[in-house]
Amino acid sequence: MITEHAEAPHLRTLQKRLAKEVTIMVHSEEDYNAAVEASDILFGNATSAALKKLDEDTLLAVFEGVPRFEVAKSVLDEGVKAVDLFVDNAAVFASKGEMRKLVQGGGVSLNKEKLSAFDQVITSADLLDSKYLLVQRGKKNYFLIIAK
């Protein structure tokens, strides 16, 4: 393992192994796996499939500090344009123009999938655990929309 680390220190194999061992000793292997999945979602290139696998408690724990907005589930049942949802119903964007520019540049994701158009229709079928939408603006800004 030391040789492996010396050949590719940027992969941080020793640090990752130490973190794994300590997490398993203090918590459990299941908790370690959940932590790895959560960090992949936040900082890696996790897919929407990985996001959909998370249970509600883990989802809420991972996104504990992100801004949250509540919208009526009936709005999503009827279908709503992304621009209306993210600007009018939840203040994810300050203006429709700002959102349009970011969507055109590929900088907006819904549940880890790039938004193809700023007026894309979002429905209750897009909800995670039948009540959450995860919006990513840029690389590091996340927002959780809760349908009630």
TrEMBL record:
Keyword Secreted: no
InterPro entries: S4_RNA-bd_sf, SYY-like_C, Tyr-tRNA-ligase_bac-type
EC number: 6.1.1.1
Domain Tyrosine--tRNA ligase SYY-like C-terminal: 61-145
PROSITE patterns linked: S4
Keywords, alphabetical: Ligase, RNA-binding
One GO CC term on file: cytosol
EC primary class: ligase
Cross-referenced Pfam families: SYY_C-terminal (PF22421)
GO biological process: tRNA aminoacylation
GO molecular function: RNA binding; tyrosine-tRNA ligase activity
SUPFAM superfamilies: Alpha-L RNA-binding motif
PANTHER family with a match to the protein in the record: TYROSINE--TRNA LIGASE, MITOCHONDRIAL, TYROSYL-TRNA SYNTHETASE
Name of protein: Tyrosine--tRNA ligase
Species: bioreactor metagenome
Gene: tyrS_32
